Amino acid sequence: MLRAFALYCSTNALFVAAGLQYFHCEESLLGVTTFFVLTCFVRLYFQVPIRPPLKMPQLNSGGGDDLGANDEMIPFKDEGEQEEKIQENAFTERDLADLKSSLVNESEISQNPHAAADQGAVRRSHHDEERGYTDKLREQSEDVSKHQDGGMYKTSPYSGYPFLMLPDPYLPNGSMSPSSNKVSVVQQSHGMHHLTSLLPYSNDHFNTNSPHLPADMSQKPGVHRPPSQDLSGFYSLPPGGVGQIPSAMGWQSQPVFPIAPCGFRQSYPTSLPSSSSFSRFSHSLMLGPPGMHSTGIPHPAIVPSSGKQEHDQYDRNTYAKQHQEPKQEKEPKKPVIKKPLNAFMLYMKEMRAKVIAECTLKESAAINQILGRRWHALSREEQAKYYELARKERQLHMQLYPSWSARDNYGKKKRRKREKQPDSNSDPGSPKKCRARFGLNQQTDWCGPCR
DNA sequence: TTGCCTTTGAAGCTA
DNA sequence: TAGCTTCAAAGGCAA
User: Which keywords does the record carry (predicted)?
Assistant: First the structure.
């Protein structure tokens, strides 16, 4: 029995030493140590399970008696069986190391299981939350790498984007920053010459408080008001309007805007210098009849009622044909007033040529996809410029065509009923829906989560 | 020849 | 009021 006790103590020297250290701070060290050693022996020798402590024994807790030193156990070793015990001891040390390791893991988990679970949940939630963004990021990064767009792309707005953005502070009092007052519409395509025009929106013209504009911008549609002199220079009068356009404002006398290469319509100068400026003038319109209102004032929103292709054909040939074929005079087609362009359309007009040049793409569907992603990648300020331009366009359009309604053009395209497809309006994740979900202003508030 | 594709936003319509 | 539809630009493509 005693021999077995000595043997066990020698083979479990580390364990016993650890137990001694565990109680080394006690006053009655000798009694506690003796009791602990005996208890350990009795428990382990008779295979009574010992519950490991939740906390690891504090080794070398600093100062005090080093009662836990291994040499304390030397008297228990049986020197005659030392070699045999060495191997055993090594084995038990490995077991003890495993036990310590398991205790460490258990301790770490048990110390704050909720925190660990929360951390995991947060990670999962964060991961799920960012998954959509990362998908977009991946798309964008692919797009960036694909198109080698060094300057156009910015750091992804998805990263670190606040979940709920504050209301968009852009355009306080309806005005923009001086830089945003003019939007560069540089179009460069396929090595052609630069086609640079500006949209020098003048606050004098577009500020609702401007004396140039009628005070009652919200006038009832259908009530014609003679347009202001400034506006008459770039927007034709409403069909049937009583206003007369000065002959000097005819297209022949207008400064010619450069013709966009590759058939691209030139981005129109939305801004209006007080003397002579246009809004949404395309090169085709500059050629004459296509956008020519009956008054002789060209306007990009006015196109032949037969549609785009006829419009394009009109651009190229109709002017000459019109002089050769007087038939058209017999059947004057009612001009169609197009919808004012929204912010994204303005952006597309500006950036399309650049994307085409960069990506050597021609299909508008693919280009528009790229532009759509780039649109979302734009900063708030950059998008705000286009929102402001679009807003002014609508104001101007409303001014010049007070009786016009978007309904007027319904059915003009004769579009077939499409199959149900997720679009921007039906997509719950679309910026429009997202703004509505968060109670944000549809035009001015930024929709962060949708970026 | 004409509509589709593809994008976002504005406006109109409907329930 | 929410949800849906249409149109605005653009050019290749298919029927």
Answer: Activator, DNA-binding, Nucleus, Repressor, Transcription, Transcription regulation, Wnt signaling pathway
